[in-house]
């Protein structure tokens, strides 16, 4: 008996989007457009977008989303994400966490962040920061951490998320207003133990500064040493590096320059290196432009490199205070 192939089924046309999805699609498209994503990287499957509460189920192709391209109008909000399928990596406040299915992660959109996502399915709630901070005052201690949605403290939050998305089509602004206040309190309960275990922000910042300084001193001779290279070397984002040194007397790259100048100054005064040219010494410590090196050296120490070397040979030292290892003179402690 001959084998007969079944007739091909006609593919039905895609249904028109339901009314509640129109506003959601518009909001999430606008939210993501600053990430310069390629079309098709993110697909909205379901969601809601009201005045204060927005949420969505999103299917992602691999891409990176960071604060560098986030539209300014979204920087007074936060994202609470539940990973359903695949994995994502979230980085903020110097922390980096891998988020697996069943885990929550919080991202503060007002501070530098980076999210690397593979092929994945997530549910995300977009919440006003003001409401979130009222319920979770120590917000910076729980961002970019993986919160297991199966632990007892997080089960209510996970149940709320499930109900939220199941009722998306019937959501009203009145209900959304109540939920936008309830979600942060559920999050606070779920992260109570996590917040106690996290190190104080000041301690974490100091640890990261020490990591950066150690890496810089080990790579000063590399002319390619830039903020991007430093960030990759210590596992921190470039934007976070600049934020990390914002409370210092000088910017990160000015400090790098001062460290290089201190090494050059020391070698110029070293009698055993008297046959090594000034250009050779400068280039060995990462200076490629001799005009820039000479100007920077004079700004820091009040003398040209040649005059400094000559005075050192005569054992005559200028009275101007100069940087020691890790120190900064008042002549280089200006921001750029």
Report what the structure shows:
The protein is α+β, with helices and mostly antiparallel strands. It is 40% helix and 18% strand. Strand 5 and strand 6 form a beta hairpin. The chain is elongated, with a radius of gyration of 27 Å.
Report the major sheet: 6 strands, antiparallel
Gap between N and C termini: 84 Å
**pLDDT < 50 runs, ≥5 residues:** 1-16, 316-336
Order of helices and strands: HEEEEEEEEEHEHHHHHHHHHH
Short description:
The chain is α+β, with helices and mostly antiparallel strands. It is built from 12 helices and 10 strands.
Question: What descriptive keywords fit this protein?
Answer:
4-stranded antiparallel β-sheet, 6-stranded antiparallel β-sheet, 10 strands, 12 helices, 336 residues, alpha+beta
What does the secondary structure layout of this molecule look like, with pairings?
Layout lengths: L18 H14 L9 E8 L4 E7 L2 E4 L10 E9 L2 E5 L2 E5 L3 E6 L4 E5 L2 E9 H7 L11 E2 L6 H12 L6 H18 L1 H6 L3 H18 L8 H8 L3 H7 L7 H17 L9 H7 L5 H12 L3 H9 L23
Helix pairs in contact: 2-4, 3-4, 6-7, 9-11
């Amino acid at each position: 008996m001959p084998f007969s192939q079944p007739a091909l089924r006609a593919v039905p046309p895609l249904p028109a989007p339901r009314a509640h999805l129109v506003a959601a699609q518009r909001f999430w498209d606008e939210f993501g457009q600053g990430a310069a994503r390629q079309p098709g990287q993110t697909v909205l499957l379901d969601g809601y977008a009201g005045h204060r509460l927005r949420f969505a189920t999103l299917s992602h192709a691999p891409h990176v989303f960071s604060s560098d391209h986030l539209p300014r109008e979204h920087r007074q909000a936060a994202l609470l994400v539940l990973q359903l399928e695949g994995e994502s990596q979230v980085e903020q406040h110097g922390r980096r966490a891998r988020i697996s299915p069943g885990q929550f992660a919080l991202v503060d959109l007002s501070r530098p962040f980076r999210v690397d996502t593979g092929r994945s399915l997530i549910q995300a709630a977009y919440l006003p920061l003001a409401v979130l901070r009222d319920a979770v005052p120590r917000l910076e201690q729980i961002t970019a951490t993986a919160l297991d949605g199966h632990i007892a403290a997080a089960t209510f939050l996970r149940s709320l998320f499930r109900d939220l998305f199941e009722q998306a089509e019937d959501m009203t602004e009145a209900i959304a207003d109540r939920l936008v206040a309830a979600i942060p309190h559920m999050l606070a309960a779920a992260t109570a133990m996590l917040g106690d275990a996290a190190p104080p922000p000041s301690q974490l910042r100091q640890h990261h500064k020490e990591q950066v300084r150690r890496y810089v001193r080990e790579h000063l001779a590399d002319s390619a040493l830039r903020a991007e290279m430093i960030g990759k070397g210590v596992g921190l984002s470039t934007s976070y590096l600049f934020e990390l040194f914002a409370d210092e007397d000088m910017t990160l790259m000015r400090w790098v320059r001062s460290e290089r100048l201190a090494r050059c100054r020391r070698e110029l005064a070293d009698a055993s290196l008297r046959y090594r040219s000034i250009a050779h010494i400068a280039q060995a410590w990462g200076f490629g432009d001799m005009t820039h090196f000479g100007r920077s050296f004079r700004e820091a120490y009040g003398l040209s490199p040649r005059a400094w070397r000559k005075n050192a040979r005569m054992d005559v030292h200028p009275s101007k205070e100069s940087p020691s290892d890790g120190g900064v003179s008042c002549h280089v402690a200006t921001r750029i």
